[in-house]
Amino acid sequence: MASSEEDGAPEAGGDREAPRRRRRLGSLATAWLTFYNVAMTAGWLVLAIAMVRFYMEKGTHRGLYKSIQKTLKFFQTFALLEIVHCLIGIVPTSVLVTGVQVSSRIFMVWLVTHSIKPIQNEESVVLFLVSWTVTEITRYSFYTFSLLNHLPYFIKWARYNFFIILYPVGVAGELLTIYAALPYVKKTGMFSIRLPNKYNVSFDYYYFLLITMASYIPLFPQLYFHMLRQRRKVLHGEAVVEKDE
Amino acid sequence: MTDLSPGWRFWMPRQGKSCVFWTRTPRGDVPALPLQVEPQATIAEIKNLFTKTHPQWYPARQSLRLDPKGKSLKDEDILQKLPVGTTATLYFRDLGAQISWVTVFLTEYAGPLFIYLLFYFRVPFLYGHKYDFTSSRHSVVHLACICHSFHYVKRLLETLFVHRFSHGTMPLRNIFKNCTYYWGFAAWMAYYINHPLYTPPTYGAQQVKLALAIFVICQLGNFSIHMALRDLRPAGSKTRKIPYPTKNPFTWLFLLVSCPNYTYEVGSWIGFAIMTQCLPVALFSLVGFTQMTIWAKGKHRSYLKEFRDYPPLRMPIVPFLL
């Protein structure tokens, strides 16, 4: 899409919205965000404990997903609120980045593991569940303590170092799970619309999954290197020369 | 694009006519090849001079400004009239490879015209072999082809003969972005409309007739607005005025919206979506509407900023609502 159009009228592109100054959060916003982050930390902690207990009692990962699925779906879906937080400006992150992040989680939980039952006992599911759990507990406790202005260094350290391993591990788990699901999707033709139909459209979930897997190739490095840059800035106080686009 | 670009300082003697360029480097200011510049020189002339010593940065790529974070100076600005003292420091920024608006428009519109026809004529490898070069038995499919082709021919002709562009160029990468959007959606829509298994509209001829009426009215409306906007601005000038309704009834929409051309454009695509009853067309209309709303809001804001007496009843794109 052309970045701006023209006719005889004044230029559109020059103006920008006044930069939002959110350095000072209102007390309501602070209270809500603190509650939200505490709740999410607790939720993912419960998940972690449930997973450990299951493995200790049963000694296998089979049935693990089934036992924790309700809790997982609840807390992961609740994270949609984070997009709203960015939209209304109480969190300074870009809506797009948060949107992509949360959408990919919702996609994995609801459109893959929930909907494609045969793959629920795959090992790759455990792989991404563990990665997500550790990441989220670290992330939400980091936000909680930051909001309360008492951030222990080890939490900051964890938030900016764990991802180095957890990100690739999580991505591997997700990709392997989608890959395992492909034969079932192809066989059942689930979530797909064929021609002819009243609205003259078609959709093939199998190819959609393939394209999704392919999209990890450009997306994952971008997110990973973004986190690495943040890490250098936060932990080592390096001045980051940002590209302005 | 980083801001680590060299700055130039030029000395503007009070009575004299010659100026000298200096180049700012990390080691400090280093005199570049001295260039003579009149104090009455325009920014455009300075850019041309600059290109002579730095040929890789043609004028369209140059952004000169008085402050590294400030707005770009306009080509028409005269050096003497700028808020500078006897010494003027200009900061240079490379805008990247540029391409002319006309080129971009022609390319992005020619694509859909051609691509749609490939699907209409069922060129081999698009559908199953038994359908190669066959023709649809639904009259609405032929009508849709005429409408779609007319729309893009109109756009091409307007680009060549009607529009008066403020800027000559835009960044080169835009052509890839824009063409992907237009060509991609055109192929996606055309695939379904011209598909051997295409299902005609549920309400038959009635639906198609209504849709065609909407489409034609909006095409005429859109063209009327483009002509009205062209007439606002004499050839070669970059003046800006508030557009007002003319004798042409299609322009009366200016009473209610700032950008009726966008309103009519969305209307045309809604008409086309109803005509073809094709979900991809509806999605294309929605995406286009979203983008045009963003542009309309920006333009509306610019109008409000520039003109104190701007008509208060007007909304950006949808009367009374948006």
Quick description:
The complex is a heterodimer of chains A (245) and B (322). Chain A has helices at 27-58, 64-78, 81-87, 95-114, 123-147, 153-188, 205-236. Chain A has 245 residues and is mostly helical.
What features would you highlight for this structure?
heterodimer, A: 245 residues, mainly alpha, 7 helices, 68% helix, disordered N terminus, disordered C terminus, B: 322 residues, alpha+beta, five-stranded antiparallel beta sheet, two-stranded antiparallel ribbon, 7 strands, 46% helix, fatty acid metabolism (chain A), Tyr_Pase-like_PTPLA (chain A)
Task: Describe the protein's architecture and organization.
The complex is a heterodimer of chains A (245) and B (322). By secondary structure, chain A is mainly α. Chain A is built from seven helices and no strands. The longest helix of chain B has 29 residues. In chain B, a hairpin with a 2-residue loop joins strand 2 and strand 3. Chains A and B meet through loops of A and helix 2, helix 4, helix 5 and helix 7 of B. Chain B: One of its GO terms (cellular component) is endoplasmic reticulum membrane.
Rg of chain A computed from alpha carbons, rounded to a whole number of angstroms: 21 Å
**Which overall shape of chain B is indicated by the principal axes computed on the Cα atoms?**
globular
The end-to-end distance of chain B, rounded to whole angstroms, is 34 Å
The number of distinct β-strands of chain A equals: 0
Report the helical percentage of chain B.
40-55%
What's the overall average pLDDT of chain A, rounded? Answer: 87
The description of the largest β-sheet of chain B is: 5 strands, antiparallel
The run of helices and strands of chain B is: EEEHEEEHHEHHHH
Which oligomeric state applies?
heterodimer
How many helices of chain B? The count is 7
**Which structural class do you get from the secondary structure elements of chain B?**
alpha+beta
What structural class do helix, strand and pairing data of chain A support? mainly alpha
Q: Give the mean pLDDT of chain B.
A: 84
Strand content of chain B: 5-15%
Membrane topology (chain B): Multi-pass membrane protein
Organism (chain B): Heterocephalus glaber (Naked mole rat)
Domain TECR-like N-terminal (chain B): 36-94
EC number (chain B): 1.3.1.93
